[in-house]
Amino acid sequence: MTSPGTPVLFVHGLWLHANSWQPWLDRFNGEGYAASAPGWPGDSPSVELARANPEQVAGVGIDAAVDHYAGIIATLPAKPILVGHSFGGLIVEKLLGRNLGAAAVAIDAAPIKGVLNLPVSALRVASIALRNPANRKRAVSLTPAQFRYGFGNAVSEAESAELYERWTVPSPGRPLFEAAIANFTPKSPAQVDTSNAERGPLLLIAGGADHTVPPAITRSTLKLYRKSPAVTDYREFAGRGHSLTIDSGWAEIADAVLTWLKAQDR
Description:
The protein has a six-stranded parallel sheet with strand order 2-1-3-4-7-8, with helices on both faces. The protein has a two-stranded antiparallel sheet with strand order 5-6. The chain has one domain (7-263): Alpha/Beta hydrolase fold, catalytic domain (Rossmann fold, 3-Layer(aba) Sandwich), CATH 3.40.50.1820. The protein has helices at residues 22-30, 47-52, 62-73, 87-97, 120-130, 144-150, 157-167, 174-180, 215-224, 250-263; strands at residues 7-11, 34-36, 81-85, 103-107, 139-140, 171-172, 202-207, 232-237. Helix content is 37%, strand content 13%. It has ten helices and eight strands. The longest helix has 14 residues, at 250-263. The N and C termini lie close together (7 Å). By secondary structure, the chain is of the alpha/beta class. α1 packs parallel to α10.
């Protein structure tokens, strides 16, 4: 059974503002959890301010984000349930591997070190930042067309445009560079302790039509956890793209997460 007020920490990925989690916060708080969605280091409190001040997040990397959330976790009354999307999924995997979460759900998570299967569509999205080495120290924005391909390909053009206007923000390019060279870097920030036998349960979720993190990446991530006896589950949602946490079908994903957490007695 869920203890009253069990903390839940939501972690966003690149190009979406933390406030995009608000429907999830409402749903989880309504189920008796104590949910919050703090932003990355340097994040502005609103979409408008984030767009006006992109330099505040320029240069933020994976380690800085992980340490930032570890500091927040240290202030909580209990280990939280961790829910992350895209690079937020990678972050919650790292936090869970460090035993800082009671459980974790990584939704369309960015590839961790050891994932070798990188489909062309994923490389196309990453190239938005990677094509210019200077972007490692910059904040990078998406155009509506880039968002449509990377996030909104599985929804209508009108919905993709609405989501773009409502939630997109400039994000640091550095995490994309760190992930791109992870398999060639001995102490990569994208390294996750996948062999930890003492960690809490993990659910990996994939969108079947995701261009940014195709299911092949998530399935490859799942294989890296084979050495751990801890619970690692996989769920794929057919026809869903990278916008699955914010588009009109978000509730299906949220309900699946809640059902899984209850099955894990979390």
